[in-house]
Design a protein that fits this description.
single chain, mainly alpha
């Protein structure tokens, strides 16, 4: 194992794992709020609140992934040649923009169109960053410089690959629902449905990110 990576990794692994948990909690909150809105309880208000919550969760996940890349990239020189982290900047922009649009919607300024636009931005961010967790797993494996993978590490790799596919499909679905909502096809219902799907996706990706970090923490402890 790369001892320099292990020493650096242990410093921020716990914070990163908690970041993944917070992402999952944010996804749960956004999904629950969207479900409440779909029941008919102030749908435009719930859409605005869920937009703010999901935007904040998107910012947190972007920061969590960025902190992981900051640890891995100095150890793996080839990391800078692979474009798996290119979607992180989009995550920050979409998260911040979504929060602003959600606040404007809560203030009553064109609530339906603004939340629909936020959903489209969220979907685009998920599509562009869909491979980020998988790419992070590959870089972490390279940083540890091991040829044989444990069962836990193999499971983490499968989770990372699966979450990438789910995130890609969900992002595309959110973009389609957002466009239909902007076009005027039942905006509150479609927007809340998209936010529900996005929230469930973040439950998966947040859990995957935490599991990924924890698996490498377990692997590095015996050699400490």
């Amino acid at each position: 194992m790369n001892t320099a990576y292990a020493d650096t990794r242990s410093a921020g692994a716990t914070a990163t794992a908690y970041g993944g948990v917070i992402d999952a909690i944010g996804g749960i909150a956004a999904a629950v709020i969207a479900i409440v809105g779909l029941t008919g309880f102030h749908p435009e208000l719930m859409a605005g609140v869920a937009t703010i919550v999901f935007g904040a969760a998107l910012l947190i996940e972007g920061g969590t992934l960025l902190s992981e890349y900051a640890v891995v990239m100095p150890v793996v020189p080839a990391a800078t040649e692979v474009g798996g982290d290119s979607g992180l900047s989009v995550m920050f922009m979409a998260g911040a923009g979504g929060i602003v649009l959600g606040i404007l919607a809560l203030l009553g300024i064109a609530a339906a169109p603004l939340t629909s636009i936020a959903v489209i931005a969220f979907g685009a961010a998920l599509v562009l960053s869909s491979s980020s967790v998988r790419h992070l797993f590959v870089l972490q494996s390279a940083a540890r410089r091991v040829t044989a993978r444990s069962g836990t590490e193999m499971l983490a790799g499968e989770m990372a690959s699966g979450s990438a596919g789910v995130q890609l499909l969900t992002g595309l679905a959110a973009i389609v629902l957002g466009i239909l909502s902007v076009a005027g096809a039942r905006p509150p219902v479609l927007t809340l449905t998209a936010l529900l799907i996005l929230g469930v996706t973040f439950i998966i990706t947040g859990s995957t990110l935490s599991g990924l970090v924890m698996s490498f923490m377990r692997q590095s402890r015996p050699s400490a």
